[in-house]
Structures are given as C-alpha cells and as structure tokens.
Design goal:
This protein is of the alpha+beta class and 586 residues long. It has 15 helices and 22 strands. It binds aspartic acid (ASP).
Amino acid sequence: MRRTYTCNELTLKNIGEDVVLNGWVHSKRDHGSLIFIDLRDRYGLTQIVFNPETNKNIYMQAKELRSEYVLEIHGKVETRPQESLNNAIKTGEIEVEVKDLIVLNKSKTTPFEISEDNEIKEELRLTYRYLDLRKKKLQNNFILRSKVNQITRNFLYNNDFLEIETPILMKSTPEGARDFLVPSRNHPGKFYALPQSPQTYKQLLMIAGFDQYFQIVKCFRDEDLRKDRQPEFTQIDIEMSFVEVDDVIDMASKLICEIFEKSIGYKIKLPIEEISYKEAFERFGNDKPDLRIPFEIVTLNELFKNSEFMVFKETIKNKGSIAGIKIKGGVSFTRKKIDLMIEDAKNKGAKGLAYLKFKDGNFETGISKFLSSDEKDSLKRKFELDDGDLLLLVADSYNVVYPILGEIRLEIANELNLINENEYNFLWVVDFPLLEFSEEENRFVARHHPFTQPKLYSENIFDESPENIIAKAYDLVLNGNEIAGGSIRIHQKKLQERMFEILKISKKEAEQKFGFLLNALQYGAPPHGGIAFGLDRLIMLLTKAKSIRDVIAFPKTNSAYSLMEGAPSYVVDNQINDLHLKLKNI
Ligand code: ASP
C-alpha cells in the first residue's frame, strides 16, 4: 500500500517511472473516452488518468469513484498533452496512467465540497471539522503552525532554554480570570484547577535553578464569551533568571524575528521601537496601538489653555484633556455621517464630539466661531492642515478623551481603508502601571499579575498613590494586537507580601493560595522575569486567517461549545456521585 511518492512530487524527471500514490479523489472529470481524477493528499494534487484502451477493467471501476474516496493507485508517469498543462501546480506537466486501482475506502457524499473555496456556514464546518480540515487553506494554516513551533523550539534550544512541562492539574489561585475546576473521586469536596498560565510554576523553576525555561503550553480561562476568544489557548511560555526588562525584550525580539523570517520570509527590522504605556495611551488611545494607521491623537491642552470657549475653559479648569485627530479629506463627510459620529462618541461616554472643517484656508462650521484667530492659526500649524481636512476634537476627563479618540481613529482607518494589510508593524509597549483601581471590587488589582516587580522599589512605595507606580512589564504589539506580554517578577518575599496586601489579599488568603510561592522565595530565589506569546493569535496574523478558529485544529464556538463531539456534555449520575457532587436543578 505504501506510496512511492506524495501527490506533489512527480515532474518531467519521473517520466516512464512506475509509481504508487495514495490520496483522496479531489475532483473527477469523465470525458467519455478518458476519466481524469485529481488525486489529493496534504502535499498537493496529481492528475491520474484511466484509459479504456489500455485497461478496460480498471476504467470501468473508475466510473464508480466518487469525491473523497481513498485510493491506492499503481501507474506510469507520462507527459500531459499540451492542452492540459497546468503551471499552477508542481505536478502540472505530468499525469499518471493508472494500471492498478485499489479503493482503500469509500466516502459518503460530504456535506460540503472539499475542492471548492465557497462560503460554508461555520456551524457545519465545525460539526464536520475533520472534513473542513481537509481544505487546502486550513491545511496550510496548520502546516505553518507546525513550522512555527519547530522554529521556536530550535531557536530556544540553541539559546540554552530547557523545555519543561508543568502540571495541568494545579491549585486554584484565581486572580484575574476564572479557573476551570476539576473535581476528583479521591478528594471529596476538593478541586484541582486547570492552569490559566504556568506563571507560578515557571517562577518556581527559576528558583530551582533551571535558569532558562520554555514550554509551548495550553492555558485555560473560564472567561466571559467573546468573539475570537477560546476557553483554551496556547502560549509560548518563557522565563529567564538574572535578567532585566531589556534582556527579555531583546530575546523575545530575536525570537519573533526568527519566526517571521523562517516561516513567511518576512524580515523584521531590529530593534523594535519601544514606547511607554502613557505615550501609547495619549497618542493612540490604547495600549496596543496599530501604527499602520497614518494619523494619531494630538493633545491640545497647551493650545487651548486660554480658550474663551466654555467647554474648553471648563475642561482646562477641571484638569481634563482636550485632544483631536485629523482626517485627511474628511470635509467630504456628510452632515448625517458627522451627526452619527457625534452620537456614537456620546454612546461611548463622551459629553460630545466637536468638529472643524478646513476649506479654502479657513475653518468652517462646527465650533469654529468659538475659537480665536490665534487658536485657529495654532491648530493649522499643529495639525499641518491642508484643504479638505476634518478635525475631530474631544474635551473631557483624561481617561475618557483618549480611548474615545482611539476608537474613532480605528473605525475611520478601517472605513477609509487606510491600513496596509501587507505591513507587519511591531512595537514594544513598556512602563505599564503596576495597579489599576477596580470600581467593581473596590480595590486595586494587578494590571499584569500580582508577581510583577515595580520599576522603582522602596520600602514605602505603596504608601502614596499606588496608581502611579510603574511596573517592569512589557507587551509586544503587532498591528494593533497584543501578541506577547510579560514582566520582571518580584523575587523578594517581603515585597510579594506587600503586593498582596495592596491587592487586599489578606495574610491568611495569601498563605492559603500562594504560601508555596512565598515560602520558596525565602530560599535563594534569583531575580527573574519572562514573557508569554499568544500562539493562536500569532498564527492568525501570520496566515492572515479571518478567525482564530481557523488556526486551532478543534476549536470551540463563540459560546465555548465543541460542535463536533458535543462538549461540554451531561454525564451519567454515577460519575457525579463518584465525585461526591450534587447537581442543582438546572
Ligand atoms: N503568565 C503571563 C500571562 O499569561 C505572562 C507572563 O508574565 O509571562 O499573561
């Protein structure tokens, strides 16, 4: 049965050879005098031909073949006639004349065509995932994914990293997202949790002296359902000892460089630009800016510091922010469109959205009548205005102005097609705030995670304005997506305890949840830090797949359901009993 070639190998060099091929019937053309089949495997296609003149019996059998039948054929490689040459495929100059045919398996009519690239409802695709995965486009995604795993492993091995596995059944230490819990027959009333990430384990591996660790690892978060989120996802997880922020950034930059160059032949220019969180927020309205968009947010507080326009005057008085964006050629936006944008800005939480049209060297409409000629001149200079430009301004509190303008910036860029889809734009965002205040929980929460080291450490660091403390944390951003994030960790027990205190995690709770880590920190924990790449999102960007589900072999739907096997599912009462559990009426 064993093939002598794949379906993407034979060329003119093989003419006259007797070969064995295995594959699926991709398509069949019955020309009466001859039957042609494109035989498919994961490598490609080969045309096989059945000729009644040379082998009537096999020709008759070929008449019965249907799409997706699995074949073994024995035959001879021949040159294709001139009129059926196909330059688009590697085997396009040859065909194999079949001498012997074995049907290894039949196939029912598939619920959708494998050979065609038409839109199919995702529900159907996911139900028959194994058929969906036969399609070329999806196969290519997984071939690339496998390659990226290999490049990653090679790069990290070559740089002295050790691949070490960490447990899937661990202690529940929720901080951030919710844990998936696993009950066990042997431990009534107790639960393991699936790791949200191997964060504590990799820190313990540093304490154990392994120095440089990595793992391509599954992580689980029982989060609210959202588009393009999966309850389980894969990280390239990395930790290093005796490092500072720059060392991790340097290593991760080289890794991403290697991945892009060796997987898709794209050369990233090093060093990758770094900007602070504050700058990202004020220039782009978020912490994962897409720098492919050719305009940014401009702060106008200085320009309007003496403004007589009430809205601006009040904002300055209240220590708020005034900022704006310029849309090239935006004067063509209709009144209706602008009204919709104003409405939308209000829905997003702004008090309003002011606009100015710049036409024939002058400002028109909007708030222009409230501005002095000095202010108008300064605006012209600051935004380097050309005829036809539109300015959109927001005046509100600092935390409202920038995210709203950031969202508008993204929407307009998409609407006006201002994003070059072939560009890969990388950026490190550094100097994140260590903490942020959660109104909901009425306490500070860690922005990254509670093991992150503050940038400047002193005994009384937490005494004043915790929200102003900067963390040794960093994110790698690609085209507006966070593709990796990490930090230098706290390696001093005392500081870790202070951190828990600030997060209002009581001594008792800290001991219960993280006692093992606090304990370990007392036994010569080296300074250490690390990073994790979101592998699924990275592959999605590399393959330009439309959905994260197209780069995960067996993904869940948006409602975290697996349509193929039907998971999660009910289990039999015995199983529940064995686990010492009782179900509420559901
Ligand atoms: N464990 C972190 C995360 O999953 C990444 C890191 O800090 O290395 O986000």
